[in-house]
Specification:
Elements lengths: L1 E6 L2 H13 L4 E6 L5 E3 L2 E3 L1 H11 L16 H8 L11 H15 L4 H12 L4 E4 L6 E7 L5 E5 H7 L6 E7 L10 H7 L2 E4 L8 H5 L4 H7 L4 E4 L2 E2 L2 E2 L4 H7 L6 H8 L34 E4 L7 H6 L3 E4 L7 H18 L2
Parallel strand pairs: 1-2, 1-9, 2-5, 9-10, 10-13, 13-14
Antiparallel strand pairs: 3-4, 6-7, 6-8, 11-12
Helix pairs in contact: 1-2, 1-13, 2-5, 4-5, 7-9
The structure holds guanosine-5'-diphosphate (GDP) and calcium ion (CA).
The site of calcium ion has 7 residues, from helix 2.
Length: 347
């Protein structure tokens, strides 16, 4: 079985780990979000690709969910001693090595997809990890300034430094319109038996991947069933601040609104209650309303069982099952539910 997963960082990585446990024989391709990528200290950092690689390769800091286990921070301390920032982004010594190798290979002319493949030769994640694009795409967030104006900041500055505490007015995947899907991305989607949208951030993870021209269309037109799992449980993100970026694209923080935002396959992509007209107009990743929807099936958590009917009324088959990725077994059970739903909706 060939399974394609559009993955962000922690939510995508943990789901992939459960999926691997559920179907060890499957050929899994993870298409990774690179909109979070940032250049720091002259190095190219790809947080979401690395979270997937470390999580599946056994190198992740489990409690934190990102970065390396057994990390030390000497380089960061030395940079601080020189007064060289930023200090708000956590790069440990072991992690630095990954970014040095990556930057060196990119400098030598290798595309990011080839570099990722090379890094994965060490980590052996057990899935084929492909960045969504070899081209530079950088998610920027339009925020209010103190003097009543607006400015765009890098997603990492908004998320990590500002902790999403200032209001996001729009989310812009800068460069996405000119970006091409990395080699293998469209082919993997077209050849897939199942396409899964894991419980990753619908706006700045999955939304960014879908903003690369060709990817949304490939998913919408895939022969395979497309099934998603809600990252929103009980009207809140399970972790992180997805509610803030959902608000920026005019989508309520509910499992049903996220399903509507992805839209039913064959129908126009929906938007949540509140509509795409509020603030989301400038957001190329929010689904324009003219493109097709994506979902055949949607899983919500059991605490959200009351919305199943509402989601199904939109033409999306919906089930309520436990969606908390507390350990590999519970996550594998989620993956099996997603695959079972995919079989149910297979055309
Ligand atoms: P990031 O790039 O590290 O932010 O990770 P992703 O975009 O892949 O995933 C972030 C999303 O994962 C957040 O919106 C969380 O709500 C969601 N998430 C994290 N843990 C869980 C979980 O155990 N269950 C569910 N359903 N969602 C989760
Ligand atoms: Ca991310």
């Amino acid at each position: 079985m060939r399974i394609v997963v559009l993955a962000g960082g922690i939510g995508g990585a943990r789901f992939l780990r459960g999926l691997k446990a559920a179907v060890p024989q499957a050929e899994i391709t993870a298409i990774g979000n690179t909109g979070d990528d940032i250049h720091l200290f002259g190095l190219k950092v790809c947080p979401d690709l690395d979270t997937v690689m470390y999580t599946l390769g056994g190198g992740i800091n489990e409690e934190q969910g990102w970065g390396r286990a057994d990390e030390t921070w000497s380089v960061k301390e030395e940079m601080a001693a020189y007064g060289v920032g930023p200090q708000w982004f956590g790069l440990g010594d072991r992690d630095f090595a990954t970014h040095i190798v990556r930057t060196q290979m990119i400098g030598a002319g290798y595309p990011l997809s080839a570099v990722t493949e090379a890094l994965c030769q060490r980590w052996r994640p057990g899935v084929r990890l492909i960045p969504m694009s070899d081209d530079r795409v950088e998610t920027h967030v339009l925020v209010d300034t103190e003097d009543g104006g607006r400015k765009a900041v890098h997603f990492q500055e908004y998320w990590v430094r500002l902790r999403a505490a200032v209001e996001a007015r729009a989310i812009v995947p800068v460069g996405a319109e000119q970006a091409k899907p990395a080699p293998g991305v469209l082919e993997a989607v077209a050849a897939a038996d199942v396409v899964l949208l894991p419980p990753s951030n619908p706006v700045v993870s999955v939304g960014t991947i879908l903003a690369v021209p060709g990817i949304r269309e490939a998913v919408a037109e895939a022969d395979a069933p497309v099934v998603g799992l809600s990252p929103i449980v009980g009207d809140a993100p399970v972790r992180g601040m997805a509610d803030k970026v959902l608000a920026a694209v005019g989508v309520e923080t509910t499992a049903a609104a996220v399903a509507a935002h992805y839209g039913a396959r064959g129908a126009g992509a929906g938007s949540g209650p509140g509509g795409a007209e509020s603030g989301g107009a400038a957001n190329a990743s929010s689904g324009s309303g003219s493109a097709s929807g994506l979902l055949d099936g949607w899983l919500v958590d059991t605490v959200d069982a009351s919305v199943v009917g509402e989601v199904e009324a939109r033409g999306i088959r919906c089930r309520a099952v436990p969606l908390m990725m507390t350990d590999i077994d519970t996550t594998a059970a989620m993956a099996r539910e997603a695959l079972a739903l995919a079989e149910e909706v297979r055309r």
